[in-house]
Design a protein that fits this description.
single chain; about 110 residues; HIT family, subunit A; 5-stranded antiparallel sheet; 2 helices; about 20% helix
């Protein structure tokens, strides 16, 4: 999608602090981190919202979650705990309409989150 911020990062049209990339996923540091580790994991194919996922996307969502856990382990935060979050649509705080998984860690998390 031409006007999507995350698509522009995926296509390397604008810079991003990339921490992982393969043929289907890109992970990069959030520019407004809410924890010492705050990485966004996005599918390279534009999907606007979780409500737009199809059955054939099940593996892709699993890959996002598994990669988040691997990054948490690489960063040394998995044993202490980390949070993964999908915000879905405006009422839940989604501001970029390209699905993305937040990986947050490196500090104690509170519940409920807000």
């Amino acid at each position: 999608m031409a006007d999507c911020l995350f698509c522009k990062i995926i296509n390397h049209e604008i810079p991003g602090s990339i921490v992982y990339e393969d043929e289907r996923i890109l992970a990069f540091n959030d520019i407004n981190p809410q924890a010492p580790t705050h990485v966004l994991l996005v599918p390279k194919r534009h999907i606007t919202s979780l409500t737009d996922l199809r059955v054939e996307d099940d593996q892709l969502v699993g890959e996002l979650v598994r990669r988040a856990a691997a990054i948490a382990k690489e960063r040394g935060i998995s044993a202490g705990g980390f949070r993964t979050v999908f915000n879905t649509n405006r009422g839940a705080g989604q501001t970029v309409f390209h699905i993305h998984l937040h990986l947050l860690g490196g500090r104690n998390m509170k519940w409920p989150p807000g």
